[in-house]
């Protein structure tokens, strides 16, 4: 620590360079820590399971346009044909698909009356084979049976008597009850229309990946009598890509009064839905890498300038008995002090930026362990960056260093 005094006096004589590097370190820490936190949050969002057998599932739209188009007959014939195909595990008509960005939502209440707030849920209309087609796990209660299924008219405003909900929905509606105890309870839709919960599934995402309650969903036992319908089709492993064009052609030929379009895999839907998140991650990684390199280059530049400026001082110290280790330690300690000042400022800026992001962009608060992580990275970066110039300074022979330059 005997070098601390000379280091502080030297820093005061060259305040501009030290201040610039400290500010650069502070800004770098602020951006890097928050960027890494955002990257981690986005990765966690993108890794969430949809609940479907994504690798083997696809969907398509059937749009009727003919004057004599009969949606009920068409749906029944399509499902019979699809379910009979070799390689198809199951198929259903549904109004929405997880992660697709388009669907229905409703509010469920535990008490009737418009004065009570509802819990928002995504709505999936399926038949008795919906659980198998979606490959979701029933963890309590029972599945739908054929008697539960109804046909929904376009103008319908009422709902079936029974529903199946996800675990997350059950916890939101009845936080004090065990999952098994939720089965049989009554909830209310449209303020005062009672519905009985007959089953609970483990997980099924809503169509909207940016929704904060993405795992809150309900299954309603009905098929729609709309001219436009979606078919969700699950295949045997490895059969999806072969069956997709075959099914598209089969459905198109079976009814000339409609068109088949939007043939899409769940994997492609996931990629499309999270494309902005993926792009943000790539941009932030580039920013982090660029800032790291720029900061390291700044430290190397300042250290090299300092070494050249102090050649005579270094030579004098070497002539007075200072070892190479002493010179190396001097510059490493000097950098550590500058880095520490920058990191201290960076801590305040990091927390400040996170507060701005939380208040204005609905982001999560920064986890505490990102701060020591950022500090350690910046300290290590500073020590590695100064190592080269410090080693060159330590290698200057006393006889050369004491010459006039």
From TrEMBL:
The keyword Cell membrane applies. Residues 286-398 form the ABC3 transporter permease C-terminal domain. Residues 19-210 form the MacB-like periplasmic core domain. GO terms for cellular component: plasma membrane. It is a multi-pass membrane protein. The chain crosses the membrane at residues 18-39, 279-302, 336-357, 369-388. It comes from the Bacteria. One of its GO terms (biological process) is cell division. One of its GO terms (molecular function) is transmembrane transporter activity. Keywords: Cell cycle, Cell division, Cell membrane, Membrane, Transmembrane, Transmembrane helix. It is found in: Cell membrane. Pfam families: FtsX (PF02687), MacB_PCD (PF12704). Belongs to the ABC-4 integral membrane protein family. PANTHER family: ABC TRANSPORTER PERMEASE YTRF, MEMBRANE COMPONENT OF TRANSPORTER-RELATED. This is Cell division protein FtsX. It comes from Lacimicrobium alkaliphilum. The lineage of its organism: Bacteria, Pseudomonadati, Pseudomonadota, Gammaproteobacteria, Alteromonadales.
């Amino acid at each position: 620590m005997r070098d601390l005094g000379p280091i502080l006096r030297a820093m005061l004589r060259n305040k501009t360079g030290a201040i610039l590097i400290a500010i650069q370190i502070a800004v770098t820490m602020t951006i890097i820590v928050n960027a890494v936190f955002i990257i981690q949050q986005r990765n966690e969002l993108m890794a969430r399971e949809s609940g479907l057998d994504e690798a083997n599932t696809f969907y398509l739209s059937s749009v009727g346009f003919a004057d004599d188009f009969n949606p009920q007959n068409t749906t029944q014939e399509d499902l019979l044909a699809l379910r009979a195909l070799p390689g198809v595990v199951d198929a259903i008509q549904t109004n929405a698909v997880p992660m697709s960005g388009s669907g229905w939502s409703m509010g469920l209440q535990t008490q009737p009356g418009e004065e009570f707030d509802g819990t928002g849920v995504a709505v999936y209309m399926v038949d008795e084979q919906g659980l198998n087609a979606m490959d979701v796990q029933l963890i309590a209660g029972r599945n739908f049976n054929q008697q539960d299924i109804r046909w929904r008219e376009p103008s319908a405003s009422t709902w079936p008597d029974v529903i199946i909900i996800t675990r997350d929905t059950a916890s939101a509606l009845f936080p004090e009850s065990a999952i098994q105890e939720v089965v049989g309870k009554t909830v209310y839709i449209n303020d005062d229309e009672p519905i009985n919960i007959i089953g609970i599934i483990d997980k099924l995402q809503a169509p909207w990946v940016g929704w904060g309650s993405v795992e809150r969903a309900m299954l309603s036992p009905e098929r729609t009598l709309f001219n436009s319908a979606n078919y969700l089709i699950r295949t045997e492993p490895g059969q999806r890509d072969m069956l997709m064009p075959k099914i598209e052609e089969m459905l198109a030929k079976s009814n000339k009064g409609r068109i088949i379009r939007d043939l899409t895999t769940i994997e492609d839907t996931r990629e499309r839905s999270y494309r902005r998140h993926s792009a943000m991650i790539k941009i932030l990684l580039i920013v982090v890498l660029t800032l790291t390199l720029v900061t390291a280059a700044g430290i190397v530049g300042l250290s090299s300038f300092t070494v050249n400026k102090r050649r005579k001082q270094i030579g004098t110290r070497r002539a007075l008995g200072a070892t190479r280790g002493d010179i190396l330690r001097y510059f490493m300690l000097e950098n550590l002090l500058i880095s520490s000042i920058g990191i201290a400022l960076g801590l305040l800026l990091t927390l400040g930026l996170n507060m701005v992001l939380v208040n204005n962009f609905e982001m999560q608060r920064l986890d505490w362990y990102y701060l020591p992580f950022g500090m350690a990275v910046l300290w290590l970066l500073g020590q590695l960056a100064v190592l080269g110039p410090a080693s060159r300074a330590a290698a200057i022979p006393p006889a050369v260093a004491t010459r006039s330059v």
